[in-house]
Design goal:
Helix content: 25-40%
Number of strands: 4
Structural class: alpha+beta
Shape: elongated
Strand order of the largest sheet: 2-3-1-4
Order of helices and strands: HHHEHEEHE
Oligomer: single chain
């Protein structure tokens, strides 16, 4: 019987504090929320064990010298799109790759140091990937929203694999 994890207000508050300051220790979070450090530690471990929380560091593209972001839409022919997507995802310049529906098969986000890297990436690296029919690159000119908070948190009741509450 599998169970769906259920967040409560305390879990949400702990995650909110971690999102605001991922370097905060359990004691600092506990003091802000009126909890004990043990409670915070136990809650974080429970969410991690349930694969509902992962604390990671996020870095800024431009702080690392990546000044060009591209969105590239890819159409595939003669090879499974999943194989092409996996090969593209292995390229170090590719920071995100998604299988999509619609006019293209794959969408990816690419980070380059500068425009001098653009032709080498498009012509040399991508041309070596078998199965690409067309590429439609689009240069990111401004980032309006970049939300790295992977999933919105919703409270769900515990259910069994059959869906019974």
């Amino acid at each position: 019987m599998s169970q769906v994890f259920s967040f409560d207000a305390t879990d949400v508050a702990i995650i909110r504090e971690l999102r605001a300051n991922g370097r905060a220790n359990n004691q600092q979070i506990a003091e802000k929320l009126g909890l004990t450090a043990t409670t915070v530690s136990t809650r974080i471990r429970r969410m991690e064990d349930a694969d509902q929380l992962r604390v990671v560091a996020v870095s800024d593209f431009s702080a690392h010298g990546f000044n060009v972001l591209l969105r590239i839409s890819v159409s595939v022919d003669g090879r499974p799109a999943s194989e092409v997507a996996n090969e593209l995802a292995a390229l170090p310049e590719v920071v995100a790759a998604h299988m999509v529906t619609g006019g293209y098969d794959i969408d990816m986000l690419v980070a380059l140091h500068d425009f001098d890297d653009l032709s080498g990436f498009l012509l040399d690296k991508l041309s070596g990937v078998r199965g690409i029919r067309t590429l439609t690159p689009a240069i990111v000119v401004d980032i309006i929203k970049y939300n790295f908070e992977v999933a919105p948190i919703e409270s769900r009741s515990t259910t069994s694999a059959t869906g019974a509450a």
